[in-house]
Amino acid sequence: MIDMALDTTSDRLHFSTGKVSNDPAVLEDGGAANCIGYSALFKRLLQRELSKTGNADTYVVEQVIGQLHVGSWNLHSAFNSPFWKDHDIVRITDVTTDAIIYVDPTLHDAVGVGRVSGPVRPAN
Question: b/e map of 79-92 (b: 16 or more CB within 10 Å)?
Answer without folding.
Answer: eeeeebebbbbbbb
